[in-house]
Amino acid sequence: MGIKEPVTVTVTGAGGQIGYALLFRIASGAMFGPATPVRLRLLEIPAGLKSAEGTALELQDCAFSNLDSVEVTGNAERAFDGTNVALLVGARPRGPGMERGDLLAANGAIFGPQGAAINVGAADDVRVLVVGNPANTNALIAAAHAPDVPAERFTAMTRLDHNRALGLLAGTLDVGVASIGNVIIWGNHSATQVPDISHAILTGADGSQRPLPDALAEALGGTDKVAAWLEGTFIPRVAGRGAEIIEVRGSSSAASAAAAAIDHVHDWVLGTSGSWTSAAVLSDGSYGVPRGLVSSFPVHSRNGAWEIQQGLSVAADVRARIDSSLKELEAERDMVKSLGLI
Questions:
Q1: N or C: which end of the chain has fewer CB within 10 A?
Q2: Annotation says 199 is catalytic
Q3: How many CB atoms lie within 10 A of CB 42?
């Protein structure tokens, strides 16, 4: 079997911590598999170009067999020319005294032009993952500036939240992460996100399956203990994990964010099997999520496209949390609309 045509991957904010953690894994074949070479385009602002250039030198020194080429640029149109996968990592963080509207306006000045550059030059099969926060609304902004690209090609990353939920559940049950399936993250990638284990399953070593809530009840000492643990520990800890890591490590969770981005694109391109995962995708109205919002859902990837898992029951307490998260997303959408960003 011959070598495949290289995949062009553009990473913005490539000189930052997440970019640094991400690029070596892409170059090693973790995103597309060992048979697919990659061309890397590293986009940075002027202040970050030297850092990105240093990373490019290290990538060359690693002599990855999958790495076709690396190019560093400060020009968005060059960075997205012919790109197949765009990872929009660089974003404006919230500064002291910064209101939500200020943050959205600052990010609109980043993601609007990037969306326009994708519209001008990206490959016909381009897939876009927004990592930079507020990721859901930044994806909405970028999509609005790329009218010739199908809007469903713009997604935001809630795979990090999904992976965090899996890790916490696996640790609580003392099982491997691979034995847990069908966890869901609903809504916004923010403190209002909704981790949901209602449909989760646990697969035993013999291949048998049982509802994960039943396994938790056994481990924690009853269904009432499960409810208390979910409310008091699991949900707030998944939602606040980023802050927890900053407090412990002294800096943000760059490596786990990079790993989640790899997982998201890998599954999007190569497909999911078995249980679903979570991704923030353009809503088609499923589960009462207003059409056109970028919201997290349980999803499968088939033939290179995300599909929302249909027909799931939603418990009343989960529904209330979803509605709260949707209100936040709608408020963000209305704010960027008022700012003329979409």
A1: N
A2: no
A3: 27
Mean pLDDT of all residues belonging to the chain: 95
Largest CA distance in the chain: 58
Answer yes or no: pTM beyond 0.85. Answer: yes
Helix (H, G, I), strand (E, B) or coil at 129: strand
Report whether 79 contacts 117 (CB < 8 A). yes
- pLDDT of 94 strictly over 90: no
How many angstroms separate the CA atoms of 35 and 83, rounded? 19
Tell whether the model's pLDDT for residue 1 goes beyond 70: no
- Nearest-angstrom CA–CA distance, 92 and 105: 10
3-state class of 20 per DSSP? Answer: helix
Region 193-205: what's the mean pLDDT?
Answer: 96
CB 148 within 8 A of CB 107: no
Residue 221 half-sphere exposure toward CB, CA atoms < 13 A: 3
pLDDT at position 3 is 54
- As given in the structure block, the two tokens for residue 29 are 């074949």
CA 92 to chain centre: 17
Which domains, from first to last, does the chain contain?
7-156 (3.40.50.720), 159-334 (3.90.110.10)
Cα 44 to chain centroid, rounded: 20
Q: Kindly report, residue by residue over 249-289, the tens digit of the pLDDT.
A: 998 899 999 999 999 999 999 999 888 999 999 999 999 99
Q: How far is CA 240 from CA 190, 191, 227, 250, 319, in A?
A: 9, 7, 19, 15, 20
Q: Which pLDDT belongs to residue 97? A: 78
Place of tokens 């009853």: 222
Backbone φ and ψ for 201, nearest 5 degrees, come out as: -130, 155
- Give 323: exposed, middle or buried? Use CB within 10 Å, 0-12, 13-18, 19+: middle
The three-class DSSP label of residue 184 is strand
Percent above pLDDT 90 for the chain:
92
As a whole number of angstroms, the distance between CA 244 and CA 250 comes to: 10
C-alpha span between 180 and 213 (Å, rounded): 11
Peptide bond into 150 cis (omega under 30): no
